[in-house]
């Protein structure tokens, strides 16, 4: 199932126009950000609230795919569907390039014990429950790939919310591996790994 998801993602990416990084494309992207995205995601993709994802530093291809999925309804969101409805594939890609070029500082946490649990789950998984390490797909630093999202620096609340949606099958647009992963996470593990992910630069 993972292989089929990757093939589908690659097919989507191959259908996109070349990276929309020209001055005109980026001017249009910035206009869209100011008019539509900034209220929730911030002008630099830093996110205005912990319930909204940080888009700064996210892979351009991944951003474009998620916008296309919101537009088609493959990824469910009453908020994002109308925002993506009129976007063209070129605009989606330009927005991806815009946000990928931005950066936000990692979060600092004072709960060393909780971070220790999060680090272990992220890097080692849990062999007792069959939980794989997050790093096995998203990389040791959580930077992901064009097909798999960057996790580093993401708001913990947003990470936990997405894990819950994968577990309940409310989110089904990405690879089905996440359904199995989310189902194996305890509430403590999910909270700890989300807190750890937020500290990654």
From TrEMBL:
Subcellular location: Periplasm
Superkingdom of origin: Bacteria
Location of the Cytochrome c domain: 24-103, 113-201
Transport among keywords: yes
Alphabetical list of Pfam families matching this protein: Cytochrom_C, Cytochrome_CBB3
Keyword list, A-Z: Electron transport, Heme, Iron, Metal-binding, Periplasm, Signal, Transport
Signal peptide extent: 1-20
Identification of the protein by name: Cytochrome c4
Source organism (scientific name): Candidatus Accumulibacter phosphatis
